[in-house]
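User: I'm putting together a teaching handout on how multi-component assemblies are represented. Below are the sequence lines for each component of a complex, exactly as they appear in our records. Could you produce the 3D structure of the whole assembly as structure tokens, so the students can see both representations side by side? Please keep the chain order the same as the input.
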Amino acid sequence: MSTIEKNMSLTGDVPKNINALQKIGTAFGMLGLFIIVLAGFNVSMPHKEVWLTIALTALGGGIVLFAHGSYKNKLAGIKNDGVWFKSISSRGYLAWIAGIALTGFYIVLYFFAELLGLGIDGAANTGVIALFDPLSRVLSGNAASQWFVYGTLYTVAILAFGVKFIRKYKGNRYEQLRTLSVMFFQTAFAFIIPELMARLNSDDFSLPYNDLKNMWPLNYYAFDQWRIDQFINAETIGLVFLLFGILSIFVVSPILTYKYGKRWYCSWVCGCGGLAETAGDSFRQLSDKSMSAWKIERWVVHSVLVFSVVTTTAVIATYLGYDATKYWLTKDVFLIGVAVFLGVLFAVIWYFKKEELAKDARYGAIGYLVIILGLIATHYFSGNELFLFEAGKLRSFYGFLIGSVFSGVIGTGFYPIFGSRVWCRMGCPMAAILGMQQRLFSKFRITTNGGQCISCGNCSTYCEMGIDVRAYAQKGENIVRSSCVGCGVCSAVCPRGVLKLENASMNGRIDSNQILLGNDVDLMDLVNKK
Amino acid sequence: MEHIVIIGNGISGVTAARHIRKLSDKKITIISSETEHFFSRTALMYVYMGHMKYEHTKPYEDYFWKKNRIELKQGFVKTVVPNQKELHFSDGDKMHYDKLIIAAGSKPNKFGWPGQDLQGVQGLYSKQDLDSLEIFAPSNKVCRRAVIVGGGLIGIELAEMLCTRNIPVTFLVREEHFWNGVLPEGESKMLSRHIKNHHIDLRLGANLKEILSDENGKVRAVVIQETGEEIACDLVGLTAGVSPNIDFLKESGIDLGRGIKVNRFLETSVDAIYAIGDCAEQLEPIGNRRPIEAVWYTGRMMGETVAQTICENRLEYKPGHWFNSAKFFDIEYQTYGWVFANKKEYEEHFHWKHDDDTKCITVAFHKESQLFLGINTFGLRMKHEVFDRWLSEKRDINYVMGNLSEANFDPEFYKRFEGQVLRAFTNKISLEYKKQQ
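Assistant: Of course. Below is the structure of the complete assembly, with chains in the same order as your input.
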């Protein structure tokens, strides 16, 4: 995504006050973009490696230079001056242009890669993709694909805007460390390591492209047959990867989420989150904070999770056999296993946390469980037909609707209109799982500082997840919300030092008492009694 | 059904209304001449700075009021007629009440300066002030220089606001250092330096003599008392404190002083009329508190208290330990308990300042008993709950300094300074001990 919304005064002063460094930065960024666009028109570029280096350096360097111009003379502090006056960050004209350009880019990327110059059926790449061939050959030894182009630009965006973010939050070590972390995970785990791993592949050995941190169900193809086959065929190393993938879902993630909340993933590790926090930072204030948005969010994100569970179950079931003598994991064992697992999970939540679930959450949970178990039962009694639909079709539908349209086109393309975390908030099934755990079984919370809240609303305004933080803070109530990704910006922008992200005992974590201090104690007793 | 009418939709009035609704089914009406809905006054500055839009300053969505059956009336109350239990509005409208809560807030102080009512001379208190600022100081083309008169919390906020639009600011502060009628010298001096770092033309020990007009009745310049210097400007911000907004009550027969006189039950001299928030003046002093406290938090507490009284549980207003907070450009300030700028005769201070000149604390304690009295912190966040507890438990200064890390509320991974603070404190103690020897 990085390519489009470069350098349109995202920071610091009111737009007309762009200083010389910012202008030079803009020029560099546009130069980089221009080279890439020229390549798209198949302008002949001998020494592609030189041109690519110039393009990427100009692009990244331009952003960094712009940030330098914005912040070099500023003292440590909050840098949100003019955010709602600037066209780009307040849904103005520039925002619409950027949004449309990004959306267009995503549509081409996902559905018309040949327009970018992807060589079809073994033909050599042309255009933009050919421009990236030299870098791809250095890393993986192969020619580039549209995904390599995307991955490279994505990484450049996270790195360059990451530098900008770090400078913007000068003096805030939480923000800086978190940003270094997403920069590292994107560059190493999502980009360089998998590309280098591809070098191991030969005629008789092949591993699928494997971003270790990209877990199911965010990685919805994690358990597709071709991947599993490749892992199994790659023997030890493949099995280690497969096992790591499964362990990270069922062991690593629950432990980390218990200790630190879902932020360990969403704002420290995840690539989608990484882009939202860096390139998307200028759009965080655009998220919808209304009660109705919250209601929609809860239904949509959990529906996607159910969709994802059903699809994955269906896909895995298709390639499992019926004969237990050939392989212990048969279709029957698997399906019954899934049903039992979900049933037990549901029972545990119901038993321990029932009183913490709102009425609609209870109905939703029961409804979804019934649907999933019903589908499994239908399959069981009806024979071959899986889940009313054919699994392959279900899977491609999911890939199209959720994987491409929701997470890419809407999730990122619409950054300048809906804010930077629409996908994370409304669509990510991984966020739904982590969120459920964060709400019910985690030590993480945002604590409020006694009675110091002045209801100013900075926290709510800058919450990228659309949480009305102020509604809690002004009541002196801890913020324990499944959607909170722990970015820490509410705490940073609070002018009264009211909010703090903390991991502490689960006892009294969800405190709905009004504990505004400063009042006489008897009065507080009365208020709390209601 | 009993009709409770509240004049003023600020934090005090709205808190009262919310709590009355929680406790009862009474009919509630909130009157405001300022805005249709409740907004956070403290956030007005962020609207001008472009951090937020006006909508963001509303703590409750617009449907909240109807859902909670709180009626909103826009209008300006001209007079209160207690013996008829009636309000008369400026547009001729009338309204009956059974009980009346006055939460009309404050207005900026004007000390009779020549030219104080010119165009382009204003305070920063209401939504209307914000709108007026957009007229007189939308940019540095329209407003080539602004002069702010009065070195308090609102003055420095106004300075910060104007800075974000690159409007040059001259800041006239009567005191020798910024806000040192309230803050001890070390803190005050640090803030003065911080203000200058933001390129503010800070004039300490400077008073306003007069404001000069151009031919259209708009401000042209100000004259400084001490030097006679004339400073050309397009905006004058009067931020020398606020006083209760009670002019409309003069004929009502309610006992007035600087504010509306109330007893500890927030009752005025007239039956069924209460006053809360900025406009209330306590008849009996409460601890070290001033009789009028124009502070967000005290307004909220009074709102909670009066709601109990209205709902048949007559309750005394008993604010707990004093606390407050503010932000001076980039430096956050919190205070718990009492630290006086001019030390009381029993009071001893310990001051620590970080080398980077943006963080410091001052702790006040009792000379003889070593009792911890209060703390000011700058650039460091502290836990309200912990200091509130220590004050109630009457901890001594050594305990507080030794356990300071328990009170830390800075974000994770921030550098901690308790060790440095404690070392500085111990050094000071041992030095004084040696002196005594």
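A couple of points students might notice: The mean pLDDT of chain B is 95. Chain B touches chain A through 59 residues (CB under 8 Å).
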